[in-house]
Write a structure and sequence with these properties.
Blueprint: H1 7-19, H2 28-32, E1 35-37, E2 41-48, E3 55-60, E4 66-70, E5 82-88, E6 98-106, E7 111-115, E8 118-123, E9 126-131, E10 141-147, E11 159-163, E12 169-172, E13 192-195, E14 203-206, E15 213-216, E16 221-224, E17 233-235, E18 241-243, E19 251-253, H3 257-261, E20 272-274, E21 306-311, E22 323-328, E23 333-342, E24 345-350, E25 358-360, E26 367-372, E27 378-382, E28 412-418, H4 426-429
Antiparallel strand pairs: 1-25, 2-28, 3-4, 4-5, 5-6, 7-8, 8-9, 9-10, 10-13, 11-12, 12-15, 13-14, 15-16, 17-18, 18-19, 19-20, 21-22, 22-23, 23-24, 23-25, 26-27, 27-28
Length: 433
């Protein structure tokens, strides 16, 4: 995705940006009319601005409370503008209508996980814990659990905490990127990763050696995995881990670290397997009207794959069992692959030929993450920005264009279900305590 372009192309880009129409700030009906979803499915709005903006991750807890992570600082603002919103549906119509700020003062928050009586938030260089002890919807406990990760370019920071079936918490990570343009902002390569204020605890290499990590905080356990990944990670019901990077929308960690550690002298080139049968930089099929092709963005293929999730919700038709959804914000789509066994690994094949499961005509629509709800629905997190590429790879004048933060006051979460499914009921009826 990183290329070198001439000054003339840079000039053309900024001319195109200056001529692009303003954001189509629309009613819910107008917003939904811009999308196409696979046959037999329907799309609804769960939440939108002004309740939320710049959403990148979500979590639903056992009481039906919705936590939404907002990354306002992307691409350059490190002032701590990131937040976590707590949303609720007060009238039971299936759409969120009330929001409070649960936590704030976050740099580039990249993920959230329900844990104990609160939530874990990945916010480089730390894993933070927030808890609301008095029931007002605002966290009054803020604790640093883990620290030492790189504060590199936001596209490459650690992210997406998930609880595995083995009761380890897994966090995606990769080597830090050395900035060439924005050196002051993004040259922190991290330090040794360790539990905060626990000198007796385990210590990993700088930025965990650019590997994913797993931890059991209550037992003071902390380890690196055998693989690395960019934004997103998921696993199937048997615990097989599937990862993602910008151009490679699906690969699997085949050999886990505990097995490799049994024989440290064994020579092995890598522990992952590229499982797509339609290429690593696979073709994509957007429907965008007047797309904005930002500099260093390859056309017609995956270039920003992220937010992958294995579907095991039980609501979708049988053919969607054993599928993985992955976002591609540059092309304004969500892609889906069927996962089938192939020897010791798997094969990922297209569910849709020359079309995508979910696609927007709106060039500002930026699906970046997915979530499987307690109702079996697929939730799509739409960051909604004019510019999704980072100016590190857009030329030195990119930050002066005045467009980098267009859309930062907007953002949407969509709910996709089979046609005829009633509105979401978990916001008012879920209580597993």
């Amino acid at each position: 995705m990183r290329r070198t372009f001439t000054i003339s192309i840079i000039s053309i880009y900024f001319l195109l940006v200056s001529c692009t129409k303003d954001s189509p700030s629309s009613s819910p009906e107008e917003i939904l009319s811009t999308f196409e979803v696979a046959k037999g499915f329907q799309i609804e709005l769960l939440a939108m601005e002004p309740l939320i903006s710049d959403p990148v991750a979500m979590e639903i807890d056992e009481q039906g409370r919705l936590y939404v992570v907002e990354m306002h600082g992307y691409p350059l603002d490190k002032s701590g503008s990131g937040t976590v919103k707590l949303l609720s549906d007060t009238d039971g119509d299936g759409m969120m209508d009330h929001a409070v700020t649960f936590a704030d003062n976050l740099k580039f928050p990249t993920g959230v996980l329900r844990w104990k009586q609160g939530i874990l938030v990945t916010d480089p260089p730390n894993v933070l814990y927030f808890e609301d002890t008095n029931g007002d919807g605002k966290a009054d406990i803020r604790d640093t659990l883990l620290t030492g990760f790189a504060v590199s370019n936001p596209q490459h920071n650690f992210n997406t905490p998930i609880l595995g079936i083995d009761n380890w918490i897994y966090i995606s990570n990769e080597p830090a990127v050395t900035a060439k343009v924005y050196k002051e902002e993004f040259s922190d390569l991290g330090s040794e990763v360790h539990f905060y204020n626990r000198p007796d605890g385990p210590v990993l290499k700088q930025n965990a050696g650019g590997q994913r990590i797993r931890m059991k905080p209550d037992q003071m356990k902390l380890e690196t995995t055998s693989s690395r990944g960019q934004f997103g990670q998921t696993y199937d019901p048997w615990g097989h881990h599937f990862l993602v990077s910008n151009a490679n929308h699906i690969f699997q960690e085949v050999i886990q670290a505990p097995y490799l550690n049994r024989n440290p002298e064994l020579l092995i080139s890598h522990s992952t397997d590229n499982i797509s049968d339609h290429g690593n930089a696979a073709a994509v099929y957007p429907i965008t009207i007047d797309p904005e092709h930002q500099l260093l963005t390859d056309l017609g293929v995956f270039t920003s794959a992220c937010g992958n999730v294995f579907y095991s919700g039980g609501l979708f038709p049988k053919e969607y069992e054993n599928t993985i959804f992955v976002a591609e914000p540059v092309s304004n789509i969500t892609h889906v692959d069927k996962i089938e066994e192939k020897g010791a690994s798997f094969k990922a094949s297209r569910m849709e030929e020359k079309k995508e499961f979910f696609a927007s005509q709106d060039a500002w629509s930026r699906p970046v993450n997915h979530y499987i709800g307690p109702d079996g629905a697929l939730y799509v997190v739409d960051y909604y920005r004019r510019v999704i590429e980072h100016p590190e790879w857009m030329g030195e004048d990119a930050a002066k264009s005045g467009t980098l933060y267009d859309g930062m006051d907007q953002g949407r979460i969509f709910r996709i279900t089979p046609k005829g499914t009633p509105p979401a009921q978990w916001p008012t009826k879920l209580d597993l305590e």
